[in-house]
Amino acid sequence: MAINAGDSMMRASNRASKARGARANATLPAGFAALSKLLACPVCGNEEIMVDVASRALHCVSCDVRFPWIRCGSTHIPWMFPDPELTRLEWKARYNGFLQSNSAEQARLKKGLGESRNSIAGRRRINRVLKGRKKHREQVTRLIAPLELRDLDWPADSADLLHRKLPRNQGLSSYTSNIFRDWAWDNGENEALLIALERVLKADTRQNIGKTLTLGAGACRLPYDVHRKYRPELSVAADINPLLLQVASAVISGETITLHEFPIAPLNEASFAVEQKCRAPASDGSLDGENFLYLLADATSPPIAKHSFDTVITPWLIDILPQDLRAFMPRINHLLPEGGVWLNTGTLAFFHKEVSWCYSEEEVLGMVEENGFEILSVERQPVPYLQSPHSAHGRVENVLSFCARKYDEATIPQSYHYLPDWIVDTSQAVPNSADIVVSSSSHLLSAQVLATIDGKRSINQISRAVASQYGLGTPETIQAVKRVLVDAWEENCFEEPDPDI
Ligand SMILES: C[S@@+](CC[C@H](N)C(=O)[O-])C[C@H]1O[C@@H](n2cnc3c(N)ncnc32)[C@H](O)[C@@H]1O
User: Fold this and answer.
1) Where is 400: in which H helix or E strand?
2) Which residue among 80, 81, 94, 170 is best mutated to probe the pocket of ligand 1, counting the most ligand atoms within 8 A of its Cβ?
3) Are 309 and 336 in contact (CB under 8 A)?
4) Ligand 1 near 193 CB (within 6 A)
5) Count of C-beta atoms within a 10 Å radius of residue 475
6) How far is CA 285 from CA 14, 225, 249, 288, in A?
7) 123-154: per-residue pLDDT in tens?
8) Which of 240, 313, 415 has most ligand 1 atoms within 8 Å of CB, for mutation?
9) Strand pairing partners for 396?
C-alpha cells in the first residue's frame, strides 16, 4: 500500500496523541493565535487552521493533516510543509550529509597533521581547523536537535512522497555565511541592504507597512531591521531551512549563538577557523515574541491564506527558486489584498536549466506589471555582499530593488512540484535525450574503471582491461582512465575512514 501524506501524518498524529497526557500543561505559543489566522493548509488550501496545543501541532480542519511546531528556547516555529514527516526525513538526510562531509574533512586534516613536511606554523594551522571542524559539528548538532531527527525512518513505500521533495542544492549549510553576515561581522552590509530597500519603499504612501511577510528570510536580519524600523503590527519570517531559523530565533530573542566560520580565502592563520559569536546588534536588540514570528515553509507554494499580508518582502529569493518566476509571481499577488505592497531586493542571477526562465531585468519588471502590480519605484544599488572580515573574498552586488503595489488579482497556477511526473510515477516512460546518452557512457566508463581497481592493478593494467571493451587506442584509454581516477581522488574516494569519528 502506498503511504501518502495523510497516512504518515496519521502516524505522527497517533504518536502525538500518546504523548498528549504528558503534555497536558502545554500552553498556546506566543503569537500563534494571530499567526494561525494567516495560514492556509499547504495540502488542500483550506484557510481554517486550528492550534492544537495538546498535540503541539497546527491542524487543518478540512484534510486533517497536522503540522508540528519545533521549539527553539521560548520560540515555537510551525513546520508547514505539505508532508511534514517527509520534509523532516529530507533534513535528516541533509544533516547526515553534513556529518559525513565533516567526518571526511576531519580525516583529511588528521592525515595532514601527521605529514612530516609540515612546519610548526603548518601544524598549528591544521590543528586550528581540525578543532574548529569538531566544534562546528557539535554546534550544528545542538542547533538542529529540536527537529528530533535521530529516530526518524523512511516509510517502506515513499514514491508518493517524492512529489514534495525539496531541491538538493538547498543543504543544511547552504547559507551559513549569511548567519555571520547577519549577526556577527558587523561590517555595514546589513545597513546597506536596509538603505537599498528604504529608497524604494519611499514611494509607498501608506501610513504603515502593516502585516509583513518575508519569504526566504534566511537568518532574518533584514526582516528584523525592517521590524525595528517600521514597527509593523506583525512580522512573519519564512524560510525552508530550519538551521537558519533556529539561529535567527535564538539571536532575536536575546541569546548569543556560537558557531564556527571557515572563510573561503582566510587572511591569516587565525582566519582559518573563527569562533563567531552571533548576537543581536544592540543590548536592547531582542524582539517581542508576540509579533515577530517564524514559519518553516516552501515559498513556491506558501501555506498562507489569501490576502492576509499587507507587505511581502522577497530578499535575494526570486532568482534561486527552482520554479519559473512566471509561476511564482501570481502567488505573491495572492498573499496581498488590493493596495498591498511587494518589496523585492537582490540579484537576477537565474541559473535554471530552462533558458527561457533566466529572465532579464526588463522581462522581470514587465512580468510584475502583467501580474496585477503597479511598479511604484525601481532602482539598482551597489551593496557589499558576504565580505567576511576574515576573508580576502567578498563581492559587491548591484541589487535590483522594487516596490510594487497590487491593483488587480492574478491567476494562480497549479501547485508546483519540483520533480517531473515520470520520476514520481514509476510506471511512466523515462524520456530519452542526447544528454542522457553522453552521460550514460561516461558513467559506464567510470563504473568499469572503478570496478577494475583491486589494490594491485596499475593505471596501465586497468587501461588495457578497459581498452578492449571500447576499441580505443592505449594512450587515449590511459588519459580517460586517469581522468576518472583524478575525479575519484578529488572526491576523497581514496581516503581511509577515520575510526575515531
Ligand atoms: C540567497 S539566500 C537569501 C537569504 C536572506 N534573504 C538574505 O538576504 O540573507 C536564499 C534564502 O532562500 C531560502 N530558500 C530557498 N528556497 C526556498 C523556498 N523554496 N522556500 C523558502 N525559502 C527558500 C534559503 O534557505 C535561503 O535562506
Assistant:
1) strand 395-406
2) 170
3) yes
4) no
5) 10
6) 40, 10, 12, 10
7) 999 999 999 999 999 999 999 999 988 877 76
8) 240
9) 384
Q: What is the phi/psi pair of residue 34, to 5°?
A: -75, -45
Is 81 near ligand 1, meaning CB less than 6 Å away?
A: no
| Owner of C-alpha cell 583529511 | 108
Q: 247 in ligand 1 pocket by Cβ < 6 Å? A: no
Nearest alpha-carbon partner for 276 in 264, 259, 263, 262: 259
CB of 315 shorter than 6 A to ligand 1: yes
Task: For residue range 420-474, list pLDDT tens digits in order.
Answer: 777 767 778 888 776 776 677 778 888 888 888 888 888 888 888 877 777 677 7
173 lines ligand 1 (CB under 6 A): no
- The alpha carbons of the chain give a radius of gyration, in whole angstroms, of 25
Q: Cell for 323?
A: 520554479
Q: How much is the pTM?
A: 0.83
Among residues 101, 102, 125, the alpha carbon closest in space to that of 112 is found at 125
Q: What is the pLDDT of residue 168?
A: 58
Run of H or E including 405? strand 395-406
Coil, helix or strand at residue 482: helix
**pLDDT band, very low/low/confident/very high, at 4 (cuts 50, 70, 90):** very low
The candidate with the shortest Cα–Cα distance to 399, out of 194, 220, 250, is 194
Task: Check if the beta carbon of residue 125 is closer than 8 Å to that of residue 269.
Answer: yes
DSSP labels, 224-289: HHHHHHH--S-EEEEES-HHHHHHHHHHHTT--EEEEE--SSBSSGGGSSEEEEE--SSTT----T
Determine whether the shortest distance from the Cβ of 239 to ligand 1 is under 6 A.
Answer: yes
Q: What are phi and psi of 261, to 5 degrees?
A: -105, 140
Ligand 1 centre to CA of 317 (Å) is 6
Measured distance CA(365)–CA(380) in Å, rounded:
13
301 DSSP assignment: S
